[in-house]
Amino acid sequence: MLLVIFQFIKEFAELALHIDTAKASAVTLGVLALIDPAFLANLVLIVILSGFENFVSRIEAHSDDRPEWMNKVDFGNLKQRLMVSIVAISAIEVLKSLMNIDKIDDRRLAWTVGIHFLFLISMLVVALSDRFGALSPGPHLVVRSQACAGCLNLPAILADLSPLGRGKVKVMIAPRIRRLSLANFRSYRAASLSLEHNLVALSGPNGAGKTNLLEALSFLAPGRGLRRATLDEVAFNESDGSWAVAAEVDGALGLATLGTGITAPAGEDAVLTRQNRIDREPVGSAAAFADHLRIVWLVPAMDGLFLGPASERRRFLDRLVLAVHPDHGTRVSALERALRSRNRLLENPSPDPHWLDATEHETAELAVAVAAARAETVQRLATATLARRNSFPSADLALDGWMETMVLAEPAIAVEDRYRAVLRDNRGRDAAAGRTLEGPHLTDLAVRYAAKNIPARDASTGEQKALLITLVLAHAGLVAKMTGIAPIMLLDEVLAHLDPQRRGALFEALATLGAQVWMTAADPALFADLPGPADRFAIAPGRVMRDA
């Protein structure tokens, strides 16, 4: 990179020294000579950053200035960008040769043009091969409207992939944590649990650290864990700021060791980067853990879900989607950044229409991808909740948003076009409001208590808790059917809210799922009726002891 910068400065100085006497053709050639190293510098930068994110580790830059393309450039995109840059550099060389044609012999000109066409053909071959590869059928729905928006028809895809209907039945795998180790995490300077069974019972007084163990496990899933804590908040108070969670997993790909954590920050203003490893090898993000296990949880903080703001229900819904589509979180974050970029542009009384069009084009693509994943999950979850037959109530689910409704009936490209038109027509209104007033970022999850046909918010506290359990159990079954992986379930203080009949129904449902289940309770007597063998632990502040 330094050599390229030096070459650029050298060419610029040469052009500047002779600009007053140079002819127009010489100035043009000089400018072309500057464009060459500029293209080359961009190429080097893309290769360094994208290569690092694809093959080493995700760059966790918590900033609105993070380039949007860093979220989208996978290995196939990287190849295409490399070829486009090479073709552009080659085209500049051809143009320079044509402008200097009187000084170049025919043989050299022919080679220059021929090599350019060779690069051009190579670029087309790479693009076509990636295109055909993207269109090949896979086991899961991947919404990428940027790649093939016009050929995406969600109803057909949902019918083909439906695990609840006539699709192929997948072999079910139930991953199990064999050992969990913590270092400098929350209330634990160090802790280790060895496990043999599918049921794990953690008992101890309030504040002892039971939920901390579940939170440590939740960091083995994409996202910020079950408490949505920042990376520095989970570090042990008396540590150097570093923390680590490691789990030996008998998972979907066999035995593996998954690890995540942060190193000690270099200073107060240091940017914390979460490191993720599989068998001690770095991976880009925690989404890579989804190849080995999936995790679903129910915690007391979710009890107010039906009474809280729509943003809480969207976050809950996105967590449900994330367990099925590990890349969903990345798309939601990219949509939020695109909306912020649009809002900043609209703050200008005379925004650049080209920038605004480009931003709205990207926003529409991301919005449709997010809406489609949510709509698919809710549609399947609604079917699963109504089909359940146990002591927990059935729930009617729906999404309160026109885009989620439209995306199930129309091709994605049609929904994108409509949303772009909405954004364009509402620029004045959105500028006055200081925010975008339409889109999936405002969608609400509507839940009704089916037996009484009333909104969940109007149900009693006990009924709302039962509805939450219904949703989580149905979601766990849905994840298992869609991915072939029974998710590990984390149930924090759930048994205390259930009567003996519903506790028995919960145990029966968990046994049917076949997943490993981690449960906490302040009173160990709640675990007296656990079906089958269980790993029981007594939790005290900073300590974990096996309970006979």
Class derived from helix and strand content: alpha/beta
Q: What is the residue-averaged pLDDT?
A: 83
How many angstroms does the end-to-end distance come to?
Answer: 63 Å
Radius of gyration (Å): 28 Å
Strand coverage percent:
15-25%
Reported CATH architecture of the largest domain: 3-Layer(aba) Sandwich
- Overall geometric form: elongated
Order of secondary-structure elements: HHHHHHEEEHEEEEEHHHEHHHEEHEHEEE
Spatial strand arrangement across the major sheet: 2-1-4-5-6-7
The CATH homologous superfamily name of the largest domain equals P-loop containing nucleotide triphosphate hydrolases
Number of domains: 3
Number of helices: 15
CATH class of the largest domain: Alpha Beta
Percentage of residues assigned to helices: 40-55%
Poorly predicted tracts of residues: 134-170
Predict the CATH topology of the largest domain. Rossmann fold
For the biggest sheet, the summary is: 6 strands, antiparallel
What is the number of E strands? 15
Strand and helix map with partners:
Elements: H1 2-17, H2 24-55, H3 75-99, H4 106-135, H5 145-148, H6 154-161, E1 176-185, E2 188-194, E3 199-203, H7 210-218, E4 243-251, E5 254-262, E6 275-278, E7 281-283, E8 295-298, H8 310-324, H9 328-346, H10 353-387, E9 395-400, H11 402-407, H12 412-425, H13 427-433, E10 444-449, E11 454-455, H14 461-483, E12 488-492, H15 500-513, E13 517-521, E14 534-540, E15 543-546
Parallel strand pairs: 3-13, 3-14, 8-12, 12-13
Antiparallel strand pairs: 1-2, 1-4, 4-5, 5-6, 6-7, 9-10, 10-11, 14-15
